[in-house]
Amino acid sequence: MRSAQPDPHVCPELSYRVSSISYMGSGVVFDAVAAVQVAVTDLLTCLDGGELAGLPDGELVEVVQELEATERQLQTRDWAVLSEVGSRQVADRMLARSPAGFLARVCRLSPGVALARAREAEALGQRRTLTGEPLPPVRGRVAAARRDGLLSDGHVQVMLGAFRELPAQLSVADLDASEQILIDAARALNPTELARVATALVDA
After folding, report:
1. CA 14 from chain center: how many Å?
2. Is the residue at 132 inside a domain?
3. Which of 120, 150, 124 is nearest to 137 (CA)?
């Protein structure tokens, strides 16, 4: 007897728990995700076990910063995922209408959060021509800084918002310079502070 096929229009329940993932698939991608899950579980066990208590203040601060940078790097997973979803038209088959709708449905995100993540993936992820040839990201400098863990999603939203407001006739050189100014500022500023720099840049 053939097993029933899942309805592609129905969002499946999430297949993971807080402490472990149960996979139906196999291969390099599944193995890599499983390795991350194991590493995260080990890390949380270490942190919950009181290991932080033995660290000097300076090392504790360093741990916090490294954890934040790692989390930011992992957030860039959407770039490749949404590119693949788009190339296969998975969102259309799930009646999600868009990559943002796909994320909102599959990951149970609010529409605003899903839209921000989809916009980031579109601007910072690798692109492809109609024949499948790779193209660099629209905003390559921001993409590199995000991939390195320098920028939070809040920083990226501020930057992409500023780029949308810059004059259309701005030269490539001036646009690249504006991009670098915002990245350099983000090294020391939070997104709220960076927004003031972005506003001044747009109004200049």
Report:
1. 19
2. no
3. 124
- CA 17 from chain centre, in angstroms, equals 21
State both tokens at 6: 């899942």
**Cβ proximity of 156 and 146 under 8 Å:** yes
CA dist 113 and 104 (Å) reads: 8
If one counts the domains in the chain, the total is 3
Q: Map tokens 């009646």 to a residue.
A: 95
Instruction: Indicate whether 190 belongs to any domain.
Output: yes
Domain containing 103 equals 77-124
Strands (DSSP E) contained in 36-178 are 127-128, 134-135
For the chain of 204 residues, list the mean pLDDT of each consecutive stretch of 10.
Answer: 46 44 70 94 96 96 98 97 91 89 95 96 90 89 98 97 93 94 98 98 91
Q: What is the pTM of this model?
A: 0.81
Length in residues, the chain: 204
The answer as to whether 89 is a domain residue is yes
